[in-house]
Amino acid sequence: MTAHQRPRFRKVQSFRADYAPTTITQYESERSGMQVIVADRKGPKVNGYFTLATEIFDDSGAPHTLEHLVFMGSKSYRYKGLLDKLAGRAYSNTNAWTAVDHTAYTLETAGWDGFAQILPVYLEHVVVPDITDDACVTEVHHIDGEGNDAGVVYSEMQALQYSSSELMDLRARRLLYPENVGFRYETGGMMEALRVLTPQRIREFHKAMYQPQNLAIVITGEADHDDLLRILDTFEESIKDDIPPPNPQFKRPFVDSPQPPPLEKTIVETVEFPEEDESTGEIVVAFFGPSCVHQVEATAVNILMTYLCGSSVSVIENVMVETEQLASSVSYWWDSRPNSVIWFQPTGVATEKLAFVEQRLIALLKEVASKPLDMGYIKECIQRELRQVKLQAESSEGFYATNIITDYLFGKRNGATLKDLETLDEYNILDGWTEPQWRDFLKKWISDAHHVSILGKPSMKLAKTLKANEEARLAKRREKLGKEGLEQLKEKLEKAKKNNEKLIPPEVLDQWPVPGTSSIHLIESATARSGKARSLGVLDNSAQKVIDAAPPGLPLFVQFEGVPTNFVHLTVHVGMTQTPMKYKPLLPLFADNFFNSPVLRDGQRVDFEQVVKQLEKDTISYQISSSARLGDYEGVAIQFQVDREKYTTIISWLRTLMFDIVFDPVRIKAAIVKALADIPEAKRDGRAMAQEVDMALHFKPESYLASKRTLVKAVYLRRLKKLLEKEPDTVLAWFEELRKSLFTFSNMRVLVTADVDKLANPVAAWDELIKNNPGLDATKDVLPITQPFSMLNAEGQSPGSFGSVIIPMTTLDSSYSVSTATGLKSYSDPRLPAYLVALGYLEAVEGPLWNAVRGNGLAYGVSFSREVDGGYIQFRVYRSPDASKAIEASRATVARLASGEEPLDRHLVEGAVSGVVFGVADEQATMAAAAQQNYVIGVVRGLEPGWNREILARVREVTEDEIRAVMRDVIMPVFEAGKSNVVVTCAPIMEENIVKALAAAKYKTQVQTLSHFYDDYGLKADEEDGEEEEEEEEDDEDDEDDDEDGSDMTGSDED
């Protein structure tokens, strides 16, 4: 490259992190001021986060609507869907999120070649989008021909605006921030503001905020820097006439804006939220904290929060949850800002105790600060947090991106604060803090500081009022518009849809060939087996040679996965085929107590607090959960992440936890109380409710998925609590029987992911678990893993006779649905390649279902299930103003494709095939994930090594006839009455229309409450207890794969 061709990007700095194999390089454009920060790390995926600081001083929702409109076309590519069709063919996924302080556009790609191809097209969509009035009609808000509000963004916010979390969060922010601070506002948009938001306002916001000098290109993965800078230089040249020159007076959002004043007083307010179950409410408490760019102070906040609330032995959690049982949990989080916000959230609080529990929390915080802190435990928290950060830096795709984005938003643009990522020195500094320093820090920011508390109070009256007001508003609108006005609105919508759906000429997409796969570097994990695992076959590789050369042990089923990690990831996979059905509803309680119970060690009872403290000292993280992530929905996974030298220590812990727990009525009662307190909040989730009712209809009661539903807990746990009070020995005996049924030699398989060469005594170390243990008979064979389809009941095996059920829920403003039909039962099914391509085709962003449903404002999204061996297929509608319309639009679309009436789009087929390639890379994005995938393929699914590569070859050979055949024979039945069942949860105002629509589609229909699907698993109430459940209706749980317990770090993505 000659001097005049040199990209005009200045390298600001480059450094290698001293705690993980990652190099961070920062560039800055000499022309526009755009920043480029690359975190180079090995792996098959390249991830891009194109981030803009977005500050607004109203609730219009302009930042959120813009996030959607960017994908509708750009200056050079005025076609809705071009970006996503291009991404689909290049082994990529695009997405975006809007947070309060920034908007990020994401590009996930398998390999650099695909990423490089899409990058300039994507950036043009971001910086010079084509924002049309028609796009705003469908994407933002419109009134349909029946007078209802719709639109993609509107539907999304409609589902959120009156949720407890949204109402409480927004009120807290209104109290924390004055009107001249952007953190005060709902950047997603309030419904009343979205209804009047104009395209011009959105364009003005784009002009103000979407400037290259306010844009960071953040990339993680294996990047080609020379190619990257060349692409960006060419891109900047292409847009130079479309953007203003860099403004030396440009004010950085949030940084150069007025900062919030300190709170002058403590404020406690009550906020009502719509809910028919008024038994439990929620609390959030907010304190201003130190600046997020002060690394030592920011880390000190995290350590202090862990000390206060990090586990069941932390003082706040221990007193309020475990001892006084005032809340089901006390969670915490921290908003990274120039003036950060520290949040505490007691959950599952009895409504009549909301004020008392808030006062108790504040009193406890003051009490902690009034006494000497436990410096031994603080130092353990520091070391544990340090271990967790190192693990995250190695194993989390988002670790560096999150930190880099925060630094870009609020740090110094010259790179001085970014360089803090080079080391973890802040932990060494904090390790030297004295007790008075820690206590002064606690007093300054929390115990002596003013705060804002919001008491979230459920209200049936508010639910009825909101429903009545909405009905009246819509009726008034329809009357005002009249038949002619509604017809005009319908025509306006149809015109907008037509204008948005301009066909992309094939020659436009053909400018970009499908990239090769040579730049996709899959992580290789070497499988080795010992004990009973050898029966699956032994591979000829270095890891197996190490295991074969190691001292042999008893024949426990152990699969080793050799990867160059600094840690050991250990999973004990426990089957349930020997667990009687009557004990399965106890499993969530068993899991909650697994790490939180007293144990016997050397004949001495050790209290649970000491158990937890020692576990925290010996591990990086631990958890017990459903083994669904291993592809087994009918088992349990006990997982540890530890430093390599703790390998044998954790095996000893496993023996103690499996066989030496003391089941304590006090601990069991605490677990029951916590679980009961969580039920009302769980039932507010419409999506989870629909899924739970679907399980009740299609699964046998002995299924673990069915038995751990909240619809079971709602009755079962209340009765179990009474039985525990009256007959504690009976309940303790049940837990003993449950333990015996789980922890047998025949039930256990072990996965060890580590640098096998460096593992001391890898095989014989497991003898510690088995030897002299009468519960583990090493002569037994390992039992087969339960096949998912075997847990379907008669209706599940042949859906269709039930029909449909509609469940109105006062907590909802939108609707959700699950439709279920018969599906594939095996990964060996010859139709699988065509099935994967067909699903990828239908679900493609800007593909047929996207355009039919989301593009028309009928739902935020639709999707199919991916349980290939479950024996069923599910179609789900998410956040819809009327799920029945989304279902019908989807049915008509699939029918046209399946029959051949509508031809298959060649580019979408190519995108579907590339999507399968991306899926394989995504499943192996980190060392631990690649290792786990080997276990899933070989052990759980019983497939041959290299199956992934075989399926990649087979999907490339799928024909159009095979795709249509799968659509016709496997997918279409999920839309057909008599072949499928439908569950809908919805706002009460939607019930009548949805019932009529499903009946018109020939489904049997019924309307039920959630309590109709309760199951007590044979645990009957005493007659003297009367109608206990009548007065305290409780239903549902959330995600079927939630961790029941654990100490691992948690976080959430902003969507």
UniProtKB/TrEMBL annotation:
One of its GO terms (molecular function) is metal ion binding. Residues 476-503 form a coiled coil. The keyword Coiled coil applies. Keywords: Coiled coil, Hydrolase, Protease. This is Presequence protease 1, chloroplastic/mitochondrial. Transmembrane segments: none annotated. Residues 59-141 form the Peptidase M16 N-terminal domain. It comes from Chaetomidium leptoderma. Residues 197-382 form the Peptidase M16 C-terminal domain. One of its GO terms (biological process) is proteolysis. Residues 1016-1055 are annotated as: Disordered. The lineage of its organism: Eukaryota, Fungi, Dikarya, Ascomycota, Pezizomycotina. PANTHER family: METALLOPROTEASE, PUTATIVE (AFU_ORTHOLOGUE AFUA_4G07610)-RELATED (PTHR43016:SF16), PRESEQUENCE PROTEASE (PTHR43016). Residues 1022-1055 have a biased composition (Acidic residues).
